[in-house]
Each structure stands twice: as structure tokens, then as C-alpha cells.
Amino acid sequence: MKRILKKAYAKINLHLDVTGKADNGYHEVATVMQSVSLCDEIEVSLSEGDTHSIVCSSPSVPLDSKNLAWRAADLFFDKCGIEDKADIKIIKRIPVAAGLAGGSTDAAAVLSALNELCGEPLSEGELLSLGAKLGADVPFCIEGGTKYADRFGDVLHPFADMPACYIVVACGKEGVSTPWAYAMLDERYNDFRGGAYTPRSADTLERAVESGDVVLTCRNLYNIFESVIEPKRPEVTRIKSLLISFGADGAMMSGSGPSVFGIFRDKNAAVSALNELLEMGIDAFIAEPIG
Ligand code: ATP
Questions:
Q1: How confident is the model at residue 194, as a pLDDT?
Q2: Is the torsion defined by CA of 114, 119, 122, 125 positive or negative?
Q3: What is the CATH number of the domain that holds 239?
Q4: In sequence order, which residues have a C-beta less than 8 Å from that of residue 37 and are 6 or more positions away?
Q5: Same domain, yes or no: 154 and 175
Q6: End-to-end CA distance of the chain, in Å?
Q7: CA atoms of 150 and 156, how far apart (whole Å)
Q8: Where in the sequence is the domain holding 146, given as residue range(s)?
Q9: What's residue 48's pLDDT?
Q10: N or C: which end of the chain has fewer CB within 10 A?
Q11: Which atom in ligand 1 lies closest to the alpha carbon of residue 97?
Q12: What's the burial of 204, exposed, middle or buried (CB within 10 Å: 0-12/13-18/19+)?
């Protein structure tokens, strides 16, 4: 039986802002997303069974239709009118519910793998639209690299490639539910009505990234969620400070948290920061940007 192996890369947000709230209650965002080399490994094959199957190395991930990878397989076969099922194996390395798009990237890998296994019935554009039905981050996870995204985070635009650097991703123990994080933002910024919040432009970040200057890039990182998550998750603030004290040029929370990333120009500094965090019992990984 033919199998496809995919690396499903995590994402971090270099910029994440809310620009408004649509009538359907969804938040409109402006974000710059970056794929990083921290990844899950996904193996997909067509199944001989009468249902999908998922095997995963992590006990904290559902193995049924609650798994985004399962829903990706359902959606793909439905869209293509193919009567088939998928067997999916996931080696989970991306921390779960951490703001690193772990579920979205697995779903993206399954969509791309099934499209390859079935002889590419869907164009890249069709795959992206299908991905958007699963979650706003899925189209980015299909394309990867460095992208600016707006609307609900599902409409992608080109962005300069991030300069070469080392990224230490660290994760506090207590997870964050994204709906809870948005509810806190709504409370603080009056549902983003009546000028209660002025979004920040990503233009200076774009110029910094284009210039290839890592330090300038770090000075222009922004995540609106820090304002509501840091008071509730002091570990986020602590890990950011630790990363800076270990020599990071900048550190910020990713997505709605609680994961934090530190950006380093120097590999040795990044490796020793990683070791310090691990010795303190903090889950941490070293990664590089994926172009
Ligand atoms: P995002 O950054 O897209 O908001 P996240 O990184 O914060 O996502 P996930 O790791 O995707 O969060 O996990 C969110 C929830 O999704 C978890 O409660 C988990 O049980 C569920 N889930 C469903 N499928 C998966 C999957 N393949 N991998 C991880 N979590 C999954």
C-alpha cells in the first residue's frame, strides 16, 4: 500500500493583531506567520477499512472525528467524491493547545498527502479553500514559509522571508483555550467597537524583515494576546524574561499562547538557552525558520 510521509511544521506569529469583528462574530486579524522546523511527522495511506484510523504518539490528542486530521480526510474525500478512507499515523512533537497550530498543520499535511495519493484531483487553490473550512490557520499550514494573512487569518499574502536565525520555542504547563483568549480581548477592547482599540501596522516589521536585520525584526514583534494572557499566565512573562536573560534578541508569545519563542542570531546562545530551560523543567525546542 502506497504511503506518503509529510513533515507538518509548527507556526509562530511574528505579528498578531485583531482589526475588527465580523457580523458572524469571528475576529478579523492581521498576522504574520512563520513556519518553523519543529514539526509533527505524518504518515498517510489509503485504508482498506470502512472508517479512518488515527494512531498518535501523544495521549492528549483525540483519535476520532475530533482530530482535525480525521476531519481533513472526511472533507477531502467528500469534496472529490471518492469513496475511500485514510490510515493516519502522527508522531506528535508540537506541544498541544500551545498556539503553534499543531492541529491545523496535521490537517494541512493530511490534505496535501491525500491529494498526492489520489493523483492530485484538487488544484493548490482548491486545497487552500478546503483547508479554510477546517480552520483559519490551515491554508497557511498548507503553503508555509513567511506570510501575511488577513480576514480571519485564512487569506494569505506574500511577505519577505525571515532572516536566518535560531528560534527557541518554550511552553508553560498550563494551556490556553483560544475562545477564552478572544473573550478576554473582547471584554478589554469593547468588542473592538467604537475605536476602543487601534490596530498596529505590520509595515515596520516588514521593512525590518526585508532588511535581513534580526535585531530590528525582534524590536517589531507584536502580539495583541499578550495583553490579556500574561496577567493570567505569569509563566509566559517568566519564560520571556528567561529567554532574554539567556541572550535572545527578542521573545514573544505565539498565537493565543501559552508558548513563547525567543529569537537568537547566535546558535551557541540558542543551544545553551535551550539547555537551561530544559534543566529548569520547562518544555523547550530549538528550531529554525522554514522558507
Ligand atoms: P492554533 O494555534 O491553531 O489555535 P493550537 O496550537 O493552540 O492551535 P492545537 O495543538 O491545534 O492548538 O490543539 C487545540 C485542540 O485541538 C486540542 O484540545 C486538541 O485536543 C485538539 N486537536 C484536534 N486534532 C489535533 C491534532 N491533530 N493535533 C493536536 N491537537 C488536536
A1: 85
A2: positive
A3: 3.30.70.890
A4: 9, 287, 288, 289, 290
A5: no
A6: 32
A7: 7
A8: 3-158
A9: 86
A10: N
A11: 12
A12: middle
Active site residues: 11, 137
Residues 11 and 102 in one domain: yes
Instruction: Report how many domains make up the chain.
Output: 2
Nearest alpha carbon, ligand 1 atom 31 = 103
Assessment of whether the complete model's pTM goes beyond 0.90: yes
pLDDT along the chain (291 residues), means of 10: 95 98 94 98 95 97 97 98 97 95 98 98 97 97 98 97 97 92 97 92 97 98 98 97 98 97 98 98 98 90
| Domain's final residue, options 127, 158, 189 | 158
Question: Do residues 20 and 150 both lie within one domain?
Answer: yes
Pick from 140, 158, 176: which residue ends a domain? 158
pLDDT score of 186:
97
Q: Give the DSSP letter of residue 221.
A: -
Please, is 244 exposed, middle or buried when counting C-beta atoms within 10 Å of its C-beta (0-12, 13-18, 19+)?
middle
3-state SS assignment for residue 206: helix
DSSP H helices in 135-225? 138-143, 178-188, 203-211, 214-219
Which atom in ligand 1 lies closest to the alpha carbon of residue 107?
27
